[in-house]
Amino acid sequence: MIRLLTEAGLWRTILLVMIVACVSVFAFISLSQKPNVYYVLGITMTLLSGLHYKRSDIVFLHLISARTFVILLLEYIVLLLPLLIMLAVYGWWLSMLVLISFALVISLVPSESNPLSKIRNPLPQAVLGTSFEWKAGVRKFGYLLLLLVLIGLGASFFLFSVPLAIFLIGLIVYGFYEKSEHYALLIVFERRPSAFLWLKVTQVVLQFSVLIAPLVLAFVWMHSSLWYIVVIEWLIFLFVFNYTVLLKYAFYKSNPSDKVPPLFAALGLGSFFLPPLLLLIWILSIYFCRKSLSNLSIYIDDFD
């Protein structure tokens, strides 16, 4: 855990602590009513599954210990401890047992032996041919995205199920643009910098909109008087994705291992929990747009 926080950096860790504190207060208040317990359990188990699926240190853990699942279980119990305490305060003992049992089960499933990784994934074929970020992301998280859409549709009669599903899907898509692609994937478009940026922005807008369209329609049908909730959420995500694309190419380097600056990336995610940050990332988007055009001109200026 300490190693992960060290890798995250100071600013990302501080923002993470702030987000966790806000979410914890909200969760504690929400757990006073029984229906909300199911939402909290669903969110927690989904996030824990995603965390386990994305872990890249399982092989290392196998090398240093013969009981990897014990290490994983202890880490997950520590992560879940605040929620377990909240559940105990309200006397939701069965929910505590379900959460602990889920942590135990998922700890016994090493991420590198995930059965889905051995199955040919046809989902990337549905992605636009030139959207390399989406192809890579869907290849890795396609089944999880599909599962979230299906769960959101199945539970759409609950008010917050669809907004929650859209939020989790948006977080996954946000991660598609964390790393730089190789220079060859820039010149293959044969576009000038402004046209290239426009293409990238329209791709993420179109594909995210298509992905969540069934959820939006289901919510509007089930809760027609509150249609604006998912529309506002959709617009915020489009705004943040636009910021993310500009941020990525403002600091672009032809090295697939390079990531966008953690502080600026954290601001994009933080805007969902701290709405005043939306104004800040709007200003930064203008700045990063100019910086992106200048930076990309180094690589694809020949296509002007």
- Helices, by number, come to 13
Specify the helix fraction band. Answer: over 70%
**Total number of beta strands:** 0
How much is the radius of gyration in Å?
20 Å
Based on CA inertia axes, which overall geometry fits? Answer: globular
State the low-pLDDT regions, or none. 112-119
N/C terminus separation: 48 Å
The ordered string of helix (H) and strand (E) elements is: HHHHHHHHHHHHH
User: Which structural class do you get from the secondary structure elements?
Assistant: mainly alpha
Main sheet, how many strands, which sense, barrel?
none
**Average pLDDT across residues?**
76
Structurally, how many domains make up the residues? 2
Tell me the β content.
under 5%
